[in-house]
Amino acid sequence: MDIKVPFRKPAEIEHMVLDLLHKYAKTKGAPPRPPIDVDDIAERYLKLDLEVTDLKELLKMPDVLGATWLEDKVVRLDSSLEGQEGRLAFTLAHEIGHWWMHRPIIEMEKVTLPLYAFEEGRPARPAIVCRSTRKDPAEWQADQFAARLLMPEADVRATAKQVRGTLPVMIPHLKALKGGSEFSPELRDFAGEVIAAGNFSNVSNQAMRIRLVDLKLVDDANDPQGRLLL
Ligand SMILES: [Zn+2]
Questions:
Q1: Which residues of 197-211 are buried (b: 16+ CB within 10 A; e: fewer)?
Q2: CA of 127 to the centre of ligand 1 (A)
Q3: For a pLDDT cut of 70, what percent of the chain falls above it?
Q4: pLDDT digits (tens, 9 = 90+) for 9-23
Q5: What is the pLDDT of residue 118?
Q6: Which end of the chain, N or C, is less surrounded by CB atoms within 10 Å?
Q7: What spacing in Å lies between the alpha carbon of 159 and ligand 1's midpoint?
Q8: Domain of 32: which CATH number?
């Protein structure tokens, strides 16, 4: 999405996620616990309509994963994500991030909206289109929001402590793993244990690996206390 958004520190994004979870908890009557039901947050709390459809065909974009039609209050997710619960939930959480953080800015017309040509009879132009190959600041913020929404810090920390006791868990050559997005058997196993014990059933192993690195619950066995390249 090529919209211009104000810079936000991770702590500000964290605050916005906690604000959403707190307000959602009031509606739900109980604090949400993993797996965080992002469908329910989107549909029941935010009153958004969700559709899984062939978005690549609809928007004529080969790399689109999700899009939000602000005026219609519709979020569409690409059907290629079906059957991949972690990626589907993450993409929805990412769209929720745009809705929660960026919609107010867009509605105040403080951003430049991308222009997309649409054919007659197609759904109204979406204001937010998310493509796997585009990573501008708005996209980065929405990814940060999604990770924090699906994997609340308190739940991840408590579960990591429960499964391993002593933290951080030392991982060989962690710094070479590019923030956990690359393969490491030790990190993959730790992420799998946290997912299972913490009931993070709608989170992919890769997303949890990145979160564990981000929360500094792992450290480099070959260079402990060094600065992790995030
Ligand atoms: Zn996006």
A1: ebebebbbbbbbbbb
A2: 11
A3: 87
A4: 999 999 999 999 999
A5: 45
A6: C
A7: 29
A8: 1.10.10.2910
Question: How far away, in angstroms, is 128 Cα from ligand 1 center?
Answer: 7
Q: How confident is the model at residue 94 (pLDDT cuts 50, 70, 90)?
A: very high
Query: What gap in Å lies between CA 38 and CA 53, rounded to an integer?
Result: 18
Looking at the structure, do residues 79 and 126 belong to the same domain, yes or no?
A: yes
Is 44 part of any domain?
Answer: yes
In this prediction, residue 119 carries a pLDDT of 47
pLDDT of residue 88: 97
129 Cα–ligand 1 center, Å? 6
CB 44 within 8 A of CB 20: no
- The rounded Å distance from CA 168 to ligand 1 centre is 31
Q: How many Å lie between the centroid of ligand 1 and the Cα of residue 68?
A: 9
Percent of the chain with pLDDT over 90: 68
Q: How far is the CA of 31 from the centre of ligand 1 (A)?
A: 26
Pair 127, 208 in one domain: no
Residue at 5 is within a domain = no
pLDDT tens digits, one per residue of 112-126: 555 444 444 555 667
136 lies in some domain? yes
Ligand 1 centre from 34 Cα, in Å? Answer: 23
Residue 26 sits in the same domain as residue 128: yes
Distance from the alpha carbon of residue 122 to the mean position of ligand 1, in angstroms:
21
Q: Is residue 230 part of a domain?
A: no
Residues 191, 142, single domain; the answer is no
State the residue range of the domain holding 215: 153-220
Residue 178 makes CB contacts below 8 A (sequence gap 6+) with: 229
Compute, in angstroms, the gap from residue 169 CA to the centroid of ligand 1. Answer: 32
- Regarding whether 202 and 126 lie in a shared domain, the answer is no
